[in-house]
Design a protein that fits this description.
Layout lengths: L7 E4 L14 H12 L3 E4 L21 E3 L4 E3 L6 E4 L4 H10 L5 E7 L2 E5 L7 H4 L8 E3 L2 H7 L4 E8 L2 H10 L6 E5 L5 E5 L4 H12 L6 E5 L5 H6 L2 E4 L5 H6 L2 E2 L7 H11 L1
Parallel strand pairs: 1-2, 1-12, 7-8, 12-13, 13-14
Antiparallel strand pairs: 3-4, 4-5, 6-7, 6-9, 9-11, 10-11
Helix pairs in contact: 1-9, 2-4
């Protein structure tokens, strides 16, 4: 495909643009900025909430749209306005949390009001294990009680198991409710969304809104939550650090995130 047919580039963050220390390199920023300067729409497509993009990809300008929380929300990064959303029904979320109540699992939420976590994040030891995770918006005594009284939309439920056994059991069982899907999105974290929410669906919806055919989209990702997006895009790229099922969904495979593989591919594809 002629690279000049590409009008939108969708980019995953963790494991793709970001190094393992969760920082974005100068090379990657410069490469993505060059795309934006050329009039190509740059769209972060991430499991993160909008707050988790600040200090990374949002240093590039302009970025007019962000696909957040695994596709559960499409937002305007400048204003935070929600353009489209595919939330988890609150009663279903309460049922899910009650189902897992007695297991050694730490849950947090992505909502239209920002991230929400229960008390005990630091005491659990998880804050030390995952220092890049910030919860600046809300700490509440009990997530179920909070959900029962909120008017916010719930976009994602994140899970950090306290043990590998709990992690493997949750993955093996899958979602206990048909209205939700459960995905492994890292070496020790699980994310739960509405069964209708995905990066791929959000990308298709955004492109329809912008009148951009999927054949004019380039997407890069590394994880299970990127597979549908890669299959939909006209040009699909898996990172070298991706697992085999992700690589098999992509047309191209580039270097690892630690080696700035995304920047390497974009430089070669657009500018030779």
């Amino acid at each position: 495909m002629n690279p000049h047919n590409i009008r939108l580039v969708a980019l995953d963050m963790d494991g793709t643009l970001l190094h393992e220390d969760k920082r974005i390199s100068r090379r990657t920023l410069q490469t993505v900025q060059k795309l934006a300067d050329a009039g190509i729409r740059v769209v972060p497509a991430t499991g993160r909430g909008l707050d988790g993009l600040r200090g990374t990809i949002l240093q590039v300008s302009p970025i007019c749209h962000a696909i957040c929380s695994n596709g559960a929300a499409i937002q305007d990064p400048a204003s935070g306005a929600v353009l489209e959303e595919t939330p988890i029904p609150i009663p279903e979320a309460i049922r899910l949390l009650e189902y897992y109540r007695d297991r050694p699992l730490f849950f947090y939420l992505h909502t239209s009001q920002g991230p929400v976590r229960p008390e005990g994040w630091k005491e659990s030891g998880l804050a030390a294990r995952f220092p890049y995770l910030r919860f600046d918006t809300s700490t509440v005594p009990d997530l179920i009680q909070w959900l029962g009284g909120t008017k916010a939309s719930l976009w994602k439920i994140g899970v950090f198991p306290h043990s590998d056994q709990a992690f493997q059991e949750m993955l093996r069982e899958g979602s206990p409710l048909p209205s939700m899907k459960l995905m492994r999105t890292g070496e020790c974290n699980i994310e739960i969304n509405s069964v209708h929410a995905s990066k791929g669906n959000a990308l298709k919806s955004l492109c329809a809104r912008l009148d951009i055919p999927m054949s004019s989209v380039l997407a890069i990702g590394d994880n299970q939550n990127d597979i549908e997006m890669l299959r939909f895009a006209g040009v699909s790229v898996a990172m070298g650090n991706a697992k085999e099922d992700v690589k098999s969904a992509a047309r191209f495979v580039t270097g690892s995130n630690e080696a700035d593989g995304a920047a390497e591919f974009l430089e070669r594809y657009f500018w030779g």
